[in-house]
Amino acid sequence: MVESLHFDTDVVPSGDREELVRDVLSDGMLLELENLRDASEGIDVRLEATGVGPLGLASMHSSPTAATRSPRRARDDSPPTLHVQVMQSGVSTLVQEGREAVYGSSELIMVLSSRANTVVSTRGTHRRMLQVPLEHLGVPDAVLRDALAVPISRDLPLAGVLGRLVEGLPLQPDLRPTEGEHLAQAALDLVRGLIATVVGEEPQIRRLPEAALQLHVADYLRQHWQEHDLTADRFAAAHHISTRQLYRLLAAEGISLGDWVRQRRLEACRDELARPRTAPVSVATVGRRWGFPDATNFGRAFKAAYGATPLQWHLLHQRR
After folding, report:
1. Residue ranges making up the domain that contains 293
2. Residue 298's domain is classified under what CATH number?
3. pLDDT at residue 257 greater than cutoff 60
4. What DSSP assignment string belongs to the chain?
5. Lowest-confidence range among 111-115, 121-125, 169-173, 212-216?
6. I need a labelling partner for 256 at 20 to 30 A (CA). Which of 31, 34, 215, 308 fits?
């Protein structure tokens, strides 16, 4: 488990900040930091870090800087760790493995701690970082190198899911050990799958890890359930899998596609019918809006779920 860390230059007199930041980052993160704004302003850094199972999670705000890990510093890094950076604000330039990549808040990027690198940020930045020890990643070096210093758009499904996971993990987690292990395993599968996608599905990691695909399928369902044209065929096609495989993956997540979507839509109708209105809207209109075009079937399904017809539910809540 990675130890928790909290470091904030706001509590340090401005004249002492630069020396303190250099000492902390040089010793703890093996980085040499250069201030890129007026010398009188110094360096501002706010860093929080914690552990999620065997992985590390960090959040870092910093003023304009150039952070360099020299070849000597890189050799000192132990254990070697892959840093998956999820930018929250600002733009940075990463130089590693002979590549120079510019990336911002719509992208992820991977940095290997045991290889020399430089990150230049000419404006203030905020980034979250998932830190994955290579011993837990299990990806061949030759494959991993091809994924370094490559901006990865969060429009890419796996990148979007991984980005949301990293953003959603708490920096002061109150997790039972098994919860931390499960979250770490999900994150590892997503990182492996993303590497496979970035490098063009090298033979060593050709198959997308099923756990990562399960997460992506469940996430896609939660984002698109309101769309009336969401069918099993369209859903499967969006993930380049068969309908049969889709149902199997959803079953592994405890989800029956038809029942799950139907229940979410009934809940949306229930909430809308209970909401006070300034203008009248018919029960049938509410049903159609949430995917129940047949008023009779809508009424039966609603009563079976909530013990009252849609109209009774609406009138009951308008009197309150």
Report:
1. 264-318
2. 1.10.10
3. yes
4. -PPPEEEEGGGS-HHHHHHHHHHHHHHHS--EEEE-S-TTT---EEEEEEEETTEEEEEEEE-SEEEEE-HHHHHH-SS-EEEEEEEEES-EEEEETTEEEEE-TTEEEEEETTS-EEEEESS-EEEEEEEEEHHHH---HHHHHTTTT--EETTSHHHHHHHHHHHHS-SS----HHHHHHHHHHHHHHHHHHHHHHTT--GGG-SPPHHHHHHHHHHHHHHHTT-TT--HHHHHHHTTS-HHHHHHHHHHTT--HHHHHHHHHHHHHHHHHHS--SS---HHHHHHHTT---HHHHHHHHHHHHSS-HHHHHHHHH--
5. 212-216
6. 308
d(CA 62, CA 18): 12
209 assigned to some structural domain: no
18 lies in a domain? yes
| Cα(195)–Cα(205) distance, integer angstroms | 9
Residue 80 is encoded by which pair of tokens? 């070697």
- CA 58 to chain centroid, in Å, comes to 13
pTM passes above 0.90: no
Statement: residue 204 has pLDDT above 50: no
Kindly state whether residues 74 and 155 are assigned to the same domain.
yes
Round the average pLDDT of the chain to a whole number and report it.
83
Q: How far apart are CA 145 and CA 147, in angstroms?
A: 5
